[in-house]
Specification:
The chain is an alpha+beta fold and about 525 residues long. It is built from 16 helices and 23 strands.
Length: about 525
């Protein structure tokens, strides 16, 4: 089966008009990347989403980064140490400058971490327990904690550093309120220290980056040779793939699953593949007493059936994820029962086994819960083809057990506020963790509050026992004990089912043969390492 359009001339004309691509961009050190997703904003603290981070990480840097094997390594911080159980000191890299030429100092690091911790930043969940951030001198930063934290440096990955002077000059001392659709200077402009500078951002169209000639890291032998990068948002699978085959783009980060096998036979194209560190889930509203727009009732009273564990388990066992992985995703996914990848430190391998697909059991559970005739509900999904296709398959499977599901697909700028704002009744979403479990447990399963707890707890699930365990994990200094506690927390989640685990994708990048890159398991492309021959 092919996704290539029949009228090649027509899509080329449309692509040129909509994206403004031209032959003048195609030189030896230009890279043109296509993806179905747009970053949504250039404010580095406004969001904490994969498609946002893909671009932000090229422009802004964090105190720590990761190497080719995804192990933690220095970045803007050269070294760090705990000087007592609740105090860490970071020695900053000398000679680093922002894109506007001003020096990066500890004062900027203090400002950036405080900005990330303050509402409405969606990065605050990473920094729970930070009591104060202080400048010791221009190249020394001190972080003071309310309790010991043996893995604090892990939490500083993907926490971008900003220029305090630039933020003050442009009135963006606080992060953009993305859910509130706020427009600020930082939405379309940027001033980082990273290897690439933002030249232009056209929302839902393209982002243009230029090489930062002053970047401190170009002397590293791993460095690539890119001069400029254009990241193009192309939602259509057919158009995105056709652009690669024709040479209009050089790299596609999300080629259509139905075409991956065929692409292996394309002489001019090569594929890179790895298993996703993240995975997809279904989340349930567990805060409201009645589901919005649903006909779910018991004894004539409107109810929220998702508050009943039997209903959540019925949804789990009504969905044949093995069939979805084989047929809908063409073998480019692995079903999982885990709530965090087994590659996350402490995630129990035995949880990777799913509950059996069993529609009869699902129907029986619904009847036991008081819904023998099922109920209606709206499933929210982002309007990207492979995710829509999975959601469509799930709605058909749920209908077989009496859960009459209406699919509502939304663009990313509408969908993601529903996720962090917890305004949906039932939704499909993805999450990519760090190797340390705490930030994911805190973001997904901790009871929500405005301080940064439960930022992506999409159903506002709450369990006091789990909250206490997640909080204890944060401050546990013994790593073996910490791993055991992570396992305990994930077993509680498995018993309670606040979300349903679905599958982990095989991450596939399709590119021209003259492009070489490093593929991380979190689906981020580190442009600093990309080379074009």
């Amino acid at each position: 089966m092919t996704s290539l359009p029949m009228n090649r001339g027509r899509w080329r004309w449309a692509l040129a008009i909509c994206l403004g691509l031209s032959a003048s961009l195609a030189h030896a050190t230009t890279l043109r990347i296509a993806s179905a997703f747009d970053p949504q904003t250039m404010d580095p603290h406004a969001l904490a989403l994969l498609y946002h981070s893909r671009v932000i990480a090229q422009v802004y840097e964090s105190l720590v980064d990761r190497d080719e094997q995804f192990r933690l390594e220095p970045s803007l911080a050269m070294s760090w140490q705990a000087i007592d159980p609740t105090t860490w000191r970071f020695k900053l890299r000398a000679g680093v400058r922002f894109h506007d030429g001003t020096p990066f100092t500890a004062a900027d690091a203090v400002f950036s971490l405080e900005r990330a911790m303050a509402a409405p930043s969606q990065r605050a969940f990473q920094l729970k327990g930070v009591k104060a951030v202080r400048r010791v001198d221009d190249l020394t930063l001190q972080i003071e904690l309310d309790a010991p934290d043996a893995v604090l440096p892990e939490k500083l990955f993907m926490l971008p550093m900003m220029s305090r002077a630039w933020c003050v000059a442009h009135g963006v001392e606080r992060a953009q309120d993305f859910n509130g659709k706020q427009e600020t200077y930082a939405v379309r402009h940027a001033d980082g220290t990273g290897p690439f500078m933002l030249e232009r951002y056209e929302p839902d169209v393209r982002t243009v980056l230029k090489r930062n000639p002053r970047w401190w890291g170009w002397g590293d032998p791993r460095s690539g040779n890119l001069d400029d990068v254009t990241l193009i948002a192309i939602r259509s699978d057919a158009t995105r793939l056709a652009a690669l085959v024709s040479g209009e783009v050089d790299l596609v980060l999300d080629p259509p699953v139905q075409d991956i096998e065929r692409l292996k036979g394309e002489a001019a194209i090569k594929l890179m593949q790895t298993t996703d560190l993240g995975q997809q889930y279904l989340a349930f509203d567990q805060a409201r007493d009645a589901l919005d727009g649903s006909d779910a009732t018991i004894d004539g009273k409107r109810r929220n059936p998702f508050k009943d564990l039997r209903v959540r388990r019925a949804v789990y066992q009504a969905i044949d994820v093995d069939l979805i992985a084989r047929k809908v995703l063409r073998g480019q996914a692995v079903p999982t029962g885990a709530f965090l990848s087994p590659r996350v430190d402490g995630s129990p391998p035995e949880l990777d086994q799913r509950l059996p697909f069993d529609p009869a059991k699902a129907k029986a559970l619904l009847a036991q819960a008081g819904y023998p005739n099922g109920f209606s509900v709206t499933l929210d999904c982002v309007n990207v083809p492979w995710r829509e296709a999975v959601c469509q398959a799930m709605t058909a499977m749920l209908a077989q057990v009496g859960i009459r599901t209406t699919l509502r697909s939304s663009p990313t700028n509408q969908f993601f506020p529903k996720l962090s704002g917890a305004t949906a009744s039932f939704m499909e979403f993805g999450w990519t963790p760090n190797p340390d479990a705490w930030a994911s447990l805190n973001a997904l399963f901790r009871s929500w509050d405005k301080s940064g707890l439960g930022t992506f707890n999409a159903g506002r699930y709450s369990n006091a026992q789990l909250d206490a365990l997640i909080d204890a994990i944060r401050v546990e200094p013994d790593l073996a004990r910490r791993r055991a506690m992570v396992g305990d927390a994930l077993r509680i989640v498995a018993a309670e089912l606040p979300v349903i685990p679905l599958y982990r994708r095989t991450l596939t990048w399709a590119m021209k043969r003259d492009v070489s890159a490093v593929q991380w398991p979190n689906d981020l492309a580190e442009l600093r390492w990309v080379r074009v021959r």
